[in-house]
Design goal:
Oligomer: single chain
Strand order of the largest sheet: 2-1-3-4-5-6
Number of helices: 31
Number of strands: 6
Structural class: mainly alpha
């Protein structure tokens, strides 16, 4: 028989021992609860443990409540996280930072900045991680003014030398198109790691300063202890893409292989895009086919690359392959598909894809998709339909510039002065692409022989100080770029040899029936012989001639141009490819042209 415990014995147990046991029990309960909160990955488990937090009286314990807050943030339940935050008596720096991070993770940077504002009004001091997180919100919004204010707070709180914060500031200034301040922050760093180097390289690359990005990469590699990660290599590859620097791109690809990043999908997608933009679509496909299980991103890169190369059927086959693998396309994928249809004359297919976007794939068409359709209709001469579609679309200024600029180009191509006049008027009044609008309209009048109108537009340009962007082309030879400007033979590299070769090629083209100086390509009223001479010195011809005397036979010559290639040069390049028995690729502002054996991959549809 078990006897009951003697009450006198219990009374003799020290109260401190009982208190200690209760504290241990309380500690073990809290530890187990926190462990469970860290393991939560769905709303049911978080809600259950939230109940336990209330049941055991831990709601006023910031350490436990912050773990609960982090659990809601982790499963992207920011509404519940915010409600819990509001119920906390004294939220600390972890509470504020977790909620700010949560709003950023769900794409609500403005809400993150609002919470940071509340933090500054409280007595809670931000940490370095708080600043790094809130600076990211400014990066997402490209909000330079707020970013500069936060930078001043960083200085005030004495965190200006923190490596993570400074790297975040570099990234923010880069995304706000303020490379100068990004460089000032970078130059002021006593110690730099791979993240800070990547941030500044990316900042230059994103702001069309690819040469500076590549120079910084070379500087980074000059330190033996430095090793680029896949983020840095992706930024370098993107810089090569924007410049059309195939040699540098191949060198970056080699670095990717050496570092074992070739199967990383982000890096592989950048390589696919780089080779396509450098006119090597074959290499793009090789890289793409080595990706083990490609997602929508590399598929989209490949579809867009093939479309720019005029390989419409290839783009559409890739799209169908993607759908058959049950990979959901996004809005960029459909821009690539519609672009492919536009540049390959596949009008019916393009309209079918437009109508299927929302119905079959749940992607709502926006202004960019309709601009592709306007381009598609305009290229085939269906200007009235394109015009009606353009007038029916509500667009923001930047998207409207692309839409009406597209219609203006198509109108000029088919001599529709009436539509071209309306399109150029929209662009000029909206203060968008003003120089291009004036020049295209002037060329449209020139094509129609309306020289008085041409002179009137030229006078308006001069009076309003609007200047045409000079046509320039460049070609890469042994990792060096050589730039050529229209009409400028005397100051270009190997100028006398370039001029001599162009004259010889001109003579041989005439023997094959070529007549230069097509209508509309010269916007002043001059004699036919003078027209031919002006067009014959377009920048892409100078670049090609230099490439022919500088690049050995058997190597493809790649010419990049900042403007659209004119039809006269297009015809000349086809003939030259046959005469010299070489192939060359031209990347203009719109697309690629691969000339070989007297023909072009665009099949004269561009």
């Amino acid at each position: 028989m078990i006897k009951p415990l003697n009450q006198n014995l219990i009374s003799r147990v020290p109260s401190t021992w009982i208190s200690r046991q209760n504290e241990l029990s309380h500690f073990h309960t809290r530890t187990q609860l926190i462990q469970r909160l860290q393991d939560c990955n769905d709303i049911m488990s978080v809600s259950f443990n939230h109940t336990n937090v209330l049941k055991y009286g831990f709601l006023n314990d910031n350490f436990t409540t912050n773990h609960l807050l982090s659990s809601y943030v982790r499963i992207r339940r920011t509404k519940d996280a915010y409600q819990l935050f509001e119920e906390m008596r004294k939220p600390d720096v972890v509470s504020f930072t977790s909620l700010i991070s949560g709003f950023i993770n769900v794409g609500r940077p403005k809400s993150a900045l609002t919470i940071f504002g509340k933090m500054l009004e409280s007595w809670v001091l931000p940490s370095s991680f708080t600043f790094a997180t809130v600076v990211k919100a400014c990066s997402m919004l490209a909000d330079l003014r707020t970013g500069q204010k936060i930078h001043s707070h960083v200085e005030t709180f004495g965190l200006q030398h923190n490596l993570v914060v400074r790297s975040s500031l570099i990234d923010m200034y880069g995304k706000c198109n303020n490379v100068e301040d990004a460089r000032l922050v970078f130059d002021g760093m006593g110690y730099r790691n791979v993240v800070s180097w990547t941030s500044i390289i990316t900042a230059y690359g994103q702001n069309a300063l690819g040469e500076c990005a590549l120079q910084l990469f070379r500087e980074f590699n000059s330190f033996p202890s430095n090793s680029p990660n896949h983020f840095m290599l992706t930024s370098v590859i993107n810089a090569c893409s924007s410049l059309g620097r195939l040699v540098s791109g191949k060198a970056a690809h080699a670095a990717v292989i050496r570092r074992g990043h070739e199967l990383n999908e982000v890096v592989a997608s950048a390589l696919v895009d780089m080779y396509a933009k450098c006119g090597s679509i074959g290499y793009s496909e090789k890289v793409f086919r080595k990706i083990p299980d490609p997602s929508v991103i590399p598929y989209t890169s490949m579809i867009v690359g093939a479309a720019k190369y005029g390989l419409g059927k290839m783009s559409l086959n890739l799209f169908m392959e993607m759908i058959n693998r049950r990979i959901k396309p996004n809005n960029v994928t459909f821009i690539g598909v519609l672009h492919a249809c536009s540049h390959s004359g596949l009008i019916d297919e393009g309209l079918e894809y437009l109508h299927s976007m929302h119905k079959q794939h749940g992607v709502a068409p926006d202004a960019k998709h309709y601009t592709c359709v306007v381009d598609m209709l305009g290229r085939t001469g269906r200007l009235d339909e394109a015009h009606q579609l353009a007038k029916s679309i509500r667009v923001e200024l930047d998207q409207g510039a692309l839409l009406w600029g597209t219609l203006l180009s198509a109108s000029r191509l088919y001599g529709r002065v009436d539509i071209a006049s309306e399109a150029s008027k929209w662009l000029i009044e909206a203060n968008q692409q003003v120089a291009a609008a004036y020049v295209t309209m002037s060329n449209t009048y020139a094509s129609a022989g309306k020289w008085e109108n041409v002179h009137s537009i030229r006078y308006e340009m001069k009076r309003n100080r609007v200047y045409k962007e000079p046509g320039c082309s460049w070609v890469e030879v042994r990792d060096s770029s050589f730039v050529f400007y229209a009409g400028d033979v005397s100051s270009c590299a190997r100028g006398s040899e370039v001029g001599s070769l162009l004259r010889e090629l001109g003579r041989r083209m005439k023997e094959r029936g070529y007549v230069g100086g097509s209508a509309g390509l010269v916007s002043v009223d001059v004699e036919e012989e003078a027209k031919e001479e002006i067009v014959g010195l377009h920048s892409e011809r100078l670049a090609l001639a230099f490439g022919l005397i500088s690049i050995p036979k058997g190597v493809t010559i790649r010419v990049m141009k900042n403007l659209r290639m004119c039809r006269d040069c297009h015809e000349a390049f086809k003939l030259i490819s046959e005469i010299v028995e070489r192939d060359f690729v031209v990347r203009d502002v719109n697309r690629f042209h691969h000339f070989e054996n007297g023909s072009c991959t665009c099949r004269d549809f561009w």
